[in-house]
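Entry 14. Two folds queued back to back today. First construct below, sequence then structure tokens.
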Amino acid sequence: MQPMHDSMMFTREELEAFPVVTDFSVKLFDAGEGGMHLEYASASLGRLAHFPAWDHVDRDLRHFIPSDVPLGTLAEPYDDRDEAWRILVFEDGGWIYVAEGDQPNAARFASRFRVLRELYFQAWAALVDQFNPITPLDEEES
């Protein structure tokens, strides 16, 4: 079976080999002139992947909604890249898979992991809530 998207070259066996991360988080870090940048992290493993071209992410998070969270499917992954970097994020079978490489057309990814879908969205919700909190209507009227 041929992949439906040229960037997807993962067999079922390769997907099963993605390490499972159970302490996943989404964090910001200061990237100097680029302002705040975003990283996927693990308390036990440290940085798992990041988005080096996403400058001043804290500004964007003020307007973030759930559909803005990086996510695709196995057939059509979220695929972001820059001059020396590429990241794929996709969901399959209740898992979110992340693969990060050091070339814009990378087909091999030095960093690969997977996290349960629920944990992925909980981590994103926690970060987004810091910048774009949901305020109940009854609190706005007070």
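Second construct, same run, same settings:
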Amino acid sequence: MSIIASKSSAAQAPSSIPHTGNLSARMTVYNHAKHLARRTGILEPRRVDRALGILMSPGRRDAKAAEYGTSFWECYCPDSRYRRQGVCKHRLSLLVQAQADAIMDDFRNGFGMAY
């Protein structure tokens, strides 16, 4: 599964995205996002760091997602309303978690390899 999923698959509520206990998968995706931020300028490195902070405390992530109506496609936090472009830390934390979950699903399913 890619970070950029179809809108129909992203319609689920943020709290329905499980908080996996696998720190390695989350850190892998975080490091990739940080590298992307530094190389391309698409994301701000500080925003990626803040998203990791939210991601590491699932209760906080779920509370803020509910407060701001955060989904993969929109967030009504002050930062999103002010900037009106880019990805806020709340959306980024959901995207990183979804990608980490996809990595773990691939790992559990043997990366589609037949043994």
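Quick look at the second one. Helices lie at 23-40, 45-55, 58-68, 78-83, 89-108. The chain has five helices and no strands.
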